[in-house]
C-alpha cells in the first residue's frame, strides 16, 4: 500500500512521487492550506494539502488526530525559512495529490505529545495508543536490535536455540510459583518456570554442549521494586566449562552489544569478591560510578560509651560503618532529615552524622549530635576516614544486614542527588558468593539456587555450610544486576548434600527433583551458565526509568494488566472442569492470604 515509511523521506527524493500510510499526528489549518504531520513507526513527515486538489483537500479537512490515511503526493523542498533541522524529514514536505481515509479514529484518551498529563494507569489501559509514541517505538526497536545482536553472537559461538516448557514443575529461584491447574489430572498443578534452569542442565546431560534461549520466566513476588511477574531472560548454558569460560563468553557478548548498538566502549570488568562488595559498598551489586565507600569502624566504636554504637560494634552479627561524603557539610538540616527518613525504609533506626567544618580546630571544628560520645576515638576516626574540611560523615550501627542495606542505598542516593558520578558505565563481576544465607530463624537458603556448585567438597560443605562459598558470578552494571549464573553441581552426591543442608529431606528431594537426581547419574558433564535479565539490560541501554517502559505490555505493580483486565474471574463451569472450588471470594485487601 505504501512506497516509503514517513520517517524515510529526505532531500534525495525531491520530485519523486511517494505513497505514505500512517496516522495523523497533528493537523493544522493555515489560511486555507492544511498541514498534516503523518506518523508511522519510522517517524513523521509533513504533508501539505492545497485547496487546488479539491477532493484531497476535502478529505484532509475532515481528518482528525489519529485517523489512518493513505497519501500520495510529490516530495518537494520546504520553502526557505520553514525548514526544521531538528527533524530527520525537516528539509522536505509532501504535496498531496490524493488523500484516502483508511480508518477514522475516536478522540484518543490522551494526545500523544501530552502523555505526561495523564497518569501511567491511563497509558497502560490504552497501551496500544501509548505505544504509538515515538519514544516507545524507539525503545522497542532498540530492544529488538539487542535481542537480534545477542542471538547472532551466541549462534556464532555455537549455542543452539532450544525451547523449554512453560507448563512444568517448580524450578526454584527463590520466588513463589505461578500455578496452572490441570484439567486432565484433577487436583494436580503445573508450575510456570521461574527460569529454564533444570531443563538447560538436562540439555547438557543430553550432550547439546551449548544452549541459549530468550526465555519468558514467571515469578510471583511482591512487586515492591521495579519487577515484573513475567519477564525475559537471555538464558545460556555450556558444558565442559569453568567460571572463566562463561564469564569470558558473556563479557564479550555484552561488550560487543554495547559497541554495536550504542557505540559505547565499556571499560574493563573488574572482579570483586562478594565479601568485599558488601564491606566497601554495602551491596552485592555496587554502583562503581559513585566514588563513596563504607568504612568499618567497629574496633573504634567498641570503645565508646554509647550503647547505640558500642552494642552493634561488639555483637557478632552487628556492624558499625561510616560513609564519608566530601563536600557534604553543606547539606541542610532538612536534607539530613530526609536522608534519615530514607534509611528508615531499610530498617535503620536513625542516621548519625558529623560535619567536619574545621578539622584543625579539633572538637570545636566538628558539628554533630553524637560527637560528645566519642571524644576518646575521634582523632583515630577522622584519621582513618582521612576527613577533610567540608566533609560530612554518616554512620550506620545495627545488624550488619540493616547497616549494609541502609548505607548501601544511601550511598546510591547521595551519588544521584549530588551527581557524583565519575563515569557513564561501570561494569564489574561479583564473585565468591556464599552458598547459603540464613533467615531470621537460622534456616539456610540457597543464595543463588540449589543447583549452584560449591567451591568445596561435600564433606566440607556439610561441616561448615554457613561459610561455604559457591562458584557463582553476577555481572553488574551501574548498580544493576544484569545477569547471574554459576558452575553447576554435576555430581549426584553433591546435589544430595546441598538438598540435605537446605533441609530438603530425601523423600521431598525425590518427589520434586527426582528427575534431576536421576539424570545426574547417567553421565552428566561438568557444566555452567548464566542468565541475563533482558528487560533490565534494555532499560539500562535505553536510559528508561522503569522496566515497564521497555516491555510492550507490562503489568502493574500489583501484577495485573489494566488493558485486558487480567487476571480475571472464570466461569463456574470452567472451575468445575478443573475440579476447583473457590473458598469464599477473598476481599481485595486480604487476597493472597
Ligand atoms: N537460572 C538462574 C536465574 O534465573 C540463572 C543461572 O544460574 O543461569 O537466576
Care to give the gist of this entry?
The chain is α+β, with helices and mostly antiparallel strands.
Describe it for me?
This protein has 17 helices and 22 strands. Helix content is 30%, strand content 23%. It has three domains: 6-103, OB fold (Dihydrolipoamide Acetyltransferase, E2P); 137-271 and 429-550, BirA Bifunctional Protein, domain 2; 290-422, GAD-like domain (Gyrase A, domain 2), CATH 3.30.1360.30. With 593 residues, the protein is α+β, with helices and mostly antiparallel strands. A hairpin with a 2-residue loop joins β20 and β21. Aspartic acid binds at residues 173, 195, 197, 484-486, 529-531.
Q: Please state the overall shape, judged from the principal axes of the Cα atoms.
A: globular
Q: What is the SS-derived class?
A: alpha+beta
Strand order of the largest sheet: 6-9-10-22-21-20-17-11
Main sheet characteristics: 8 strands, mixed
Present as ligands are: aspartic acid
The named CATH superfamily of the largest domain:
Bira Bifunctional Protein, Domain 2
Taking Cα atoms only, what radius of gyration do you get, to the nearest Å?
A: 30 Å
Overall pLDDT metric? 95
Text of the CATH class of the largest domain: Alpha Beta
The CATH architecture category of the largest domain equals: 2-Layer Sandwich
**CATH fold descriptor of the largest domain:** BirA Bifunctional Protein, domain 2
Query: How many structural domains are formed by the residues?
Result: 3
Helical segment tally? 17
Considering DSSP H and I runs of 4 or more, what fraction of the residues is helical? Answer: 25-40%
Percent in strands: 15-25%
Amino-to-carboxy terminus distance: 54 Å
Residue stretches low in confidence (pLDDT < 50, at least 5 long) are: none
Count of extended strands = 22
Amino acid at each position: 500500500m505504501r512506497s516509503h515509511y514517513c520517517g524515510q523521506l529526505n532531500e534525495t527524493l525531491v520530485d519523486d512521487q511517494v505513497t505514505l500510510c500512517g496516522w495523523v499526528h497533528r493537523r493544522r489549518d493555515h489560511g486555507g492550506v492544511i498541514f498534516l504531520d503523518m506518523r508511522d513507526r519510522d517517524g513523521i513527515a509533513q504533508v501539505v494539502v492545497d485547496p487546488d486538489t479539491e477532493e484531497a483537500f476535502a478529505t484532509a479537512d475532515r481528518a482528525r488526530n489519529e485517523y489512518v490515511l493513505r497519501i500520495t503526493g510529490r516530495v518537494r523542498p520546504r520553502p526557505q525559512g520553514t525548514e526544521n533541522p531538528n527533524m530527520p524529514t525537516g528539509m522536505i514536505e509532501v504535496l498531496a495529490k490524493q488523500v484516502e481515509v483508511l480508518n477514522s479514529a475516536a478522540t484518543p484518551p490522551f494526545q500523544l505529545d501530552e502523555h505526561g498529563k495523564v497518569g501511567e494507569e491511563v497509558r497502560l489501559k490504552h497501551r496500544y495508543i501509548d505505544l504509538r509514541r515515538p519514544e516507545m517505538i524507539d525503545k522497542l526497536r532498540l530492544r529488538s536490535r539487542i535481542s537480534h545482536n545477542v542471538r547472532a553472537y551466541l549462534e556464532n559461538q555455537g549455542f543452539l536455540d532450544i525451547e523449554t516448557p512453560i507448563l512444568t514443575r517448580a524450578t526454584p529461584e527463590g520466588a513463589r510459583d505461578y500455578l496452572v491447574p490441570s484439567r486432565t489430572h484433577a487436583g494436580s498443578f503445573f508450575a510456570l518456570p521461574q527460569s529454564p534452569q533444570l531443563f538447560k542442565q538436562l540439555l547438557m546431560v543430553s550432550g547439546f554442549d551449548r544452549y541459549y534461549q530468550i526465555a519468558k520466566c514467571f515469578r510471583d513476588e511482591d512487586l515492591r521494586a521495579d519487577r515484573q511477574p513475567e519477564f525475559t531472560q537471555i538464558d545460556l548454558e555450556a558444558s565442559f566449562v569453568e567460571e572463566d569460560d562463561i564469564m569470558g563468553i558473556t563479557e564479550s557478548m555484552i561488550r560487543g552489544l554495547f559497541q554495536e548498538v550504542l557505540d559505547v566502549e565499556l571499560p574493563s570488568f573488574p572482579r570483586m569478591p562478594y565479601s568485599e562488595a558488601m564491606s566497601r559498598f554495602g551491596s552485592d551489586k555496587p554502583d562503581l560510578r559513585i566514588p563513596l565507600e563504607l568504612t568499618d569502624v567497629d574496633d573504634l566504636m567498641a570503645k565508646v560509651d554509647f550503647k547505640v554504637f558500642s552494642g552493634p560494634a561488639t555483637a557478632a552479627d552487628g556492624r558499625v560503618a561510616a560513609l564519608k561524603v566530601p563536600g557534604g557539610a553543606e547539606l541542610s538540616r532538612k536534607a539530613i532529615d530526609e536522608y534519615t527518613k530514607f534509611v528508615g525504609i531499610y530498617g535503620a533506626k536513625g542516621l548519625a552524622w558529623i560535619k567536619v567544618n574545621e578539622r584543625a580546630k579539633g572538637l570545636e571544628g566538628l558539628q554533630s549530635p553524637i560527637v560528645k560520645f566519642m571524644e576518646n576515638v575521634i582523632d583515630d576516626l577522622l584519621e582513618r576516614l582521612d576527613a577533610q574540611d567540608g566533609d560530612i560523615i554518616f554512620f550506620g550501627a545495627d545488624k550488619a544486614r540493616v547497616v549494609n542495606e541502609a548505607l548501601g542505598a544511601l550511598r546510591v542516593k547521595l551519588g544521584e542527588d549530588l551527581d557524583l558520578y565519575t563515569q557513564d558505565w561501570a561494569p564489574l563481576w561479583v564473585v565468591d558468593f556464599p552458598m547459603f544465607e540464613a533467615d531470621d530463624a537460622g534456616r539456610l537458603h540457597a543464595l543463588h539456587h540449589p543447583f549452584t556448585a560449591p567451591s568445596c567438597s561435600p564433606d566440607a560443605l556439610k561441616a561448615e555450610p554457613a561459610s561455604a562459598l559457591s562458584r557463582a558470578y553476577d555481572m553488574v552494571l551501574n548498580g544493576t544486576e544484569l545477569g547471574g549464573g554459576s558452575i553447576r553441581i554435576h555430581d549426584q552426591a553433591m546435589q544430595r548434600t546441598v538438598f540435605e543442608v537446605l533441609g530438603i529431606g530425601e523423600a521431598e528431594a525425590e518427589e520434586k527433583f527426582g528427575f534431576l537426581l536421576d539424570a545426574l547419574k547417567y553421565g552428566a558433564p561438568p557444566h555452567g551458565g548464566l542468565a541475563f535479565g533482558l528487560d533490565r539490560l534494555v532499560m539500562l541501554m535505553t536510559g528508561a526509568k522503569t522496566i515497564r517502559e521497555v516491555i510492550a505490555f507490562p503489568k502493574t505493580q500489583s501484577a495485573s494488566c489494566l488493558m485486558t483486565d487480567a487476571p480475571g474471574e472464570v466461569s463456574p463451569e470452567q472451575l468445575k472442569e478443573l475440579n476447583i472450588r473457590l473458598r469464599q471470594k477473598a476481599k481485595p485487601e486480604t487476597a493472597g492470604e
